[in-house]
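Can't paste images in this forum, so I'm doing it all in text. The chain is below; anyone willing to post the predicted structure tokens underneath?
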Amino acid sequence: MFELHSDSKESTKALGEKLASFLRPGDVVLLEGELGAGKTTLVSGVAEGLRCGEDVISPTFNILKCYFKGTLPLYHIDAYRLEGQNMELGLEEFIEGDGACFIEWPVYIESLLPDERLHIRLYHDGSARRIVIEGKGPRGQELEEALRN
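Text version of the structure:
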């Protein structure tokens, strides 16, 4: 586990772009943070790094947004509205799918989460963000190391 600081949206997006260069099919990244902490901004940077060519918007009302035009499919799940809901939505097809899957509010779908993942927590720190990155399992740890360097 290690910590970074971001003093702007551009800096948070740059972290996403860097992460995009290491992603492979099946990678899962969990994103935690309060509303406005920068979760969607980070995913927007990933989309730019994957050359998706589309603006990323929060999937809050859709639950899932898919971006297929880039170098790797990008799946963006916002599980906030799934608290206490039936999990028979087929999300595991995207979580275990052929692209990289980013999940906001993962606590609401814990039973669907793989053991191997990268966990990114974003915290408001005044006008900046404190970002804590932790890899779980061999692949998650590999992604953590790649971001650390």
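The chain has four helices and seven strands. The mean pLDDT is 92.
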